[in-house]
TrEMBL record:
Cofactor(s) demanded: FMN
Name by which UniProt lists this protein: FMN dependent NADH:quinone oxidoreductase
Keywords: Flavoprotein, FMN, NAD, Oxidoreductase
Gene: azoR
Co-factor binding comment: Binds 1 FMN per subunit.
Species, as recorded: Nannocystis exedens
Binding site for FMN: S10, S16, H17, S18, S140, A141, G142, G143
Domain Flavodoxin-like fold residue range list: 4-197
SUPFAM superfamilies in UniProt: Flavoproteins
Phylogenetic lineage: Bacteria, Pseudomonadati, Myxococcota, Polyangia, Nannocystales
Length: 205
């Protein structure tokens, strides 16, 4: 059975622009696979804990040498990676916070991107151990991040692209909602562009 994992990183819950478009992606995926199992993780509202010393020590120790304390420290990471492994569609909806991902999404990343478990250290560099799968990333920004005029740097999309590729996830389709602080007109315009992107990615059948 197919399964969808949706990671919503806004702290604003139902009011979130990124989550609203993320839910549109999920709705279209569900229309194609009505029996798919849907798992939603609102990391922006219920954040995973930051990693601690016990986690850092366990992560650096090869599994064959793990003590009970190491296994305990990795329990949550293990659950989150297993959740990712069990899904064949991934949706990430996140606001831009200070030019990059919110710390809550970064905490999720720190649990799932784990050496010798979700990626291998090889002479050629880091190689992903997870299956590739279609991944839809929706980013919302209050300001401008594209175009020829004055704009701010976007560290969200290149960072997510890289970190997902380290896991082995390369089929990633990004969409950025921008200028959202400019009022309802700007929000409507961004939503219209998001629907056009959705029509290209997941046309209504
Ligand atoms: C802590 C914080 C930092 C932010 N930093 C940026 C930023 O660097 N660039 C930007 O364009 N918008 C920034 N914003 C605005 C949000 O990206 C914007 O309001 C976005 O639409 C929120 O998405 P959401 O509705 O999904 O939470 C920031 C907002 C917060 C709360």
């Amino acid at each position: 059975m197919s399964a969808i994992l949706a990671i919503y990183a806004s702290p604003r819950g139902a009011a979130s622009h990124s989550e609203r478009v993320g839910r549109m992606v999920v709705e279209r995926l569900l229309r194609r696979s009505p029996d798919a199992n849907l798992i939603i993780r609102r990391v922006g509202v219920e954040p995973p804990p930051h990693i601690d010393a016990a986690y850092a020590a366990a992560m650096e120790t090869p599994e064959a040498h793990h003590a009970a304390a190491d296994r305990q420290a990795l329990t949550r990471s293990e659950e989150m990676i297993a959740e990712l492994e069990a899904t064949d569609r991934l949706v990430i909806a996140t606001p831009m916070h200070n030019f990059t991902v919110p710390s809550t999404l970064k905490a999720w990343i720190d649990h799932v991107v784990r050496a010798r478990r979700s990626f291998a250290l090889t002479p050629r560099g880091k190689e992903g151990l997870l299956a590739d799968r279609p991944t839809y990333v929706v980013v919302s920004a209050g300001g401008v991040v594209s175009g020829d005029g004055p704009r701010q740097p976007d560290f969200v999309t290149p960072y997510l692209q890289h970190v997902l590729s380290v896991l082995g996830i390369r089929d990633v389709r990004f969409h950025i909602l921008e200028s959202l602080v400019r009022g309802p007109e700007a929000v409507h315009a961004a939503e219209r562009r998001a629907r056009a992107w959705l029509d290209l990615q997941l046309p209504e059948e």
